[in-house]
Design brief:
- The chain is of the alpha+beta class.
- It folds into two domains: 92 residues, predicted glycosyltransferase like domains (Thrombin, subunit H), CATH 2.40.10; 40 residues, SH3 type barrels.
- Helices cover 22% and strands 34% of the residues.
- The chain has a six-stranded antiparallel beta barrel with strand order 2-3-4-7-6-5. It has a two-stranded antiparallel ribbon with strand order 8-9.
- The protein starts with 8 loop residues before the first strand and ends in a 23-residue tail after the last strand.
Length: 177
């Protein structure tokens, strides 16, 4: 069962949002007709109504209204802090932007296919590369050199010098980074 009803697009755009008379700034992360993710350190509580101004290309702005569905807050600024927003009102500028973004994405895919050599060997290599990319595990298991306990570490946290969950010693991540 799919988790999302609408196709999402990754696009980084500047955003200002307000709720309760306070105004904040952020960056869009995933966009769709039904929602978006705003990367910000000022995440609001789930259920909050929010007014959003999304700064679109060509000097246009999209005015949106939404409800905060989830908030992600971590002390590490490098991770994806922010809010998942369900949109309840969308303006024509935003909908037109999504429509154009989707059609540009499809035309680029078609252009890529027409440039391919069409050889079976090339297609087999592409499929193999796609399979390999899809099966990269999200976490790695690292044994602590101090106490030999196995630690499951998400790949995105490897660069932050993870520590053993039992003894607190730094884990050796050289083989994974």
């Amino acid at each position: 069962m799919p988790k999302r009803l609408c196709q999402r697009f990754t696009k980084r755009l500047e955003v200002t949002f307000s709720s309760g008379g306070l105004k904040y700034r952020g960056i869009s992360s995933d966009l769709s007709a039904g929602g978006l993710f705003i990367r910000t350190q000022n995440g609001l509580t789930p259920g909050s109504l929010i007014d959003i101004e999304l700064y679109l290309p060509e000097g246009k702005a999209g005015l949106l209204k939404g409800i905060v569905r989830r908030t992600v807050k971590t002390p590490l600024t490098m991770l994806k802090n922010g809010m998942g927003i369900e949109l309840i009102e969308r303006d024509p500028n935003y909908l037109e932007f999504l429509k154009n973004f989707d059609s540009n994405d499809k035309s680029e895919d078609a252009g890529h296919r027409s440039r391919s050599t069409g050889s079976h060997e090339h297609e087999a290599e592409e499929k193999k590369a796609e399979k390999t990319a899809q099966h990269v595990p999200e976490s790695v298991i690292i044994s602590c050199q101090n106490c030999n306990v196995k630690n499951k570490v998400p790949r995105e946290r490897l660069q932050f010098s993870p520590k053993c969950g039992k003894c607190g010693a730094l884990l050796d991540t050289r083989d994974y980074v």
